Amino acid sequence: MIGRVRDWRRGWHERSKLQRIDLYTRGTLAGLPWVFLVSWGLVPLLPVLGEGPVPAGLAVAFFAVNTVLCVLSNRDLGAAFAHHRGTETFPM
């Protein structure tokens, strides 16, 4: 376990400052939608589950749509960065 952390840390320090900023930004932007999914989607969903089938069904459908949006946002993150750098066009 310690060796794995040491290797990860060595890999982090071997990167240039620009590469570290890029990796940190990508990680933050990839993780942020999931934080909102849990905090704004899952936490309000739990009290609704015991109120009957219609509210529970709507809450589960809302959570499913939010999950799909998180997956799609993470999938398009690399293409968005490439478009921002001007190396590729964003696929529409």
List the helices and strands and how they pair.
Layout: H1 2-14, H2 17-48, H3 53-75, H4 77-85
Helix pairs in contact: 2-3
Query: Helix amount, in percent?
Result: over 70%
How much of the sequence is in beta strands? Answer: under 5%
Number of structurally distinct domains: 1
Query: Structural class, judged by helices and strands?
Result: mainly alpha
Helix count equals 4
Order of helices and strands: HHHH
Tell me the major beta sheet.
none
Radius of gyration: 19 Å
Distance between the termini: 43 Å
Oligomer: single chain
Structure description:
With 92 residues, the protein is mainly α. It has one domain. It contains 4 helices and no strands. It has helices at residues 2-14, 17-48, 53-75, 77-85. Helix 2 runs antiparallel to helix 3 (53-75). The model has no long low-confidence stretch (mean pLDDT 83).
